[in-house]
Amino acid sequence: MKKQVPNILTMANVLTGMVMMPFIIMGNVQMALLLLSFALLFDFLDGFLARLLDATTELGKNLDSLADMVSFGASSGLILAYLISESMGITFPPKDFSQPFWIIGLLVPMFAAIRLAKFNVEEQSQHFSGVPTPANAILIFSLWFLYENGKRLDDSIWLKLQEMGILPAFWIGLSLISCVLMVVPIRLMALKFKGFSWGANRFRYVLIVLSGIFLLLFQSLALPFIFLLYLAMSFLSNSFKAEKSA
Predict the structure, then answer these.
(1) Listed residue (15, 27, 150) closest to 92, CA to CA
(2) Helix segments in 164-222, DSSP class H
(3) Which of 51, 76, 86, 220 reaches 20 to 30 Å from 106, CA-CA?
(4) What pTM does this model have?
(5) How far apart are CA 163 and CA 134, in angstroms?
(6) Residue range 182-197, pLDDT digits in tens
(7) Domain 2-194 falls in which CATH fold?
(8) Residue ranges of the alpha helices (H) in the chain?
(9) What is the mean pLDDT of residues 89-107?
(10) How many other C-beta atoms are found inside a 10 Å radius of the C-beta of residue 235?
């Protein structure tokens, strides 16, 4: 029975991702962010308990990637499709294909699928090429949140982008950049722990502590910076390993 506990949490991740979809379509960023938090929690706990209970299975590994595809890949693509449509003054979901630019946002789940397949292939390593799907989702969700909260301000950067007519290009560009980041052949730090020793996870622990401090100090404004912090810690980790092996 204990081997099924991580799978139950993975299924909770899938359900959370599915419940998230209607709120994204309605533009309810607060509920979507809350559900993303639960999805991230379930994603962490299923792997944590699988190792703690010695319940790691091939089924669980593949199930975890499929859950991430829903909660982090599909949801991110749906958000970007929504934002592209809204910035162009198009009702979302669209009624036809007369202005199909929103489809560009849906490229993100396609590349998330490639990223997760690579994750399964490379899972013996503590480092993987490309940005993890959950990290990419955090970036997209946080920018959506900042957009929704800032677009009503007179001096908002979002309003300036809209007045300049380049806000749709921003969201389209973010979609394409996200696709590239998930599959680019650059070694980045895996977010999942394979043990709990300090030596093997020092940069992960530092990332968690600094992220917590950023969130306490800056709340939602910290999220894009946490993403940049993750990239910085990945490069530091790579440099440390290169020096150690030299």
Answers:
(1) 27
(2) 167-183, 198-218
(3) 220
(4) 0.83
(5) 32
(6) 998 877 776 666 666 6
(7) Four Helix Bundle (Hemerythrin (Met), subunit A) (1.20.120)
(8) 5-25, 29-52, 58-68, 75-87, 107-121, 133-150, 157-163, 167-183, 198-218, 223-245
(9) 90
(10) 14
